[in-house]
Design goal:
three-stranded mixed beta sheet, mainly beta, globular, about 15% helix
Length: about 120
Amino acid sequence: MKFKWILLTSFTLMSALSFRPIHAGTEPHRIEISAKRFEFSPSEITVKKGEPVELVIQSSDVTHGLQFADLDQKVQINKGTPATLSFTPEKVGDFTGQCFIFCGTGHGQMALTLHVVE
């Protein structure tokens, strides 16, 4: 009987010491972006490393895409339907997002610069 009490007490103590309170997650930094031939507006955004980001992108003319190859992030943006790109940047730097769906002669210049800071 004494052994069971020691075992139960040990288990209870270990459980209490390993308890970690659960904190509500950080709400993502929401940024609204518009896409149209041949630009994203705004064309530059700044976010913090390690903080969740939610880019909500709306196309006003045709289907576009946004790809940050260095961050392994990609989303298709259909006209009239907002697209959401959610991620948490894990490295500091400047990253260029490009439209990856051909949208006309200025397609190559359609870019969005993402600055990730500490």
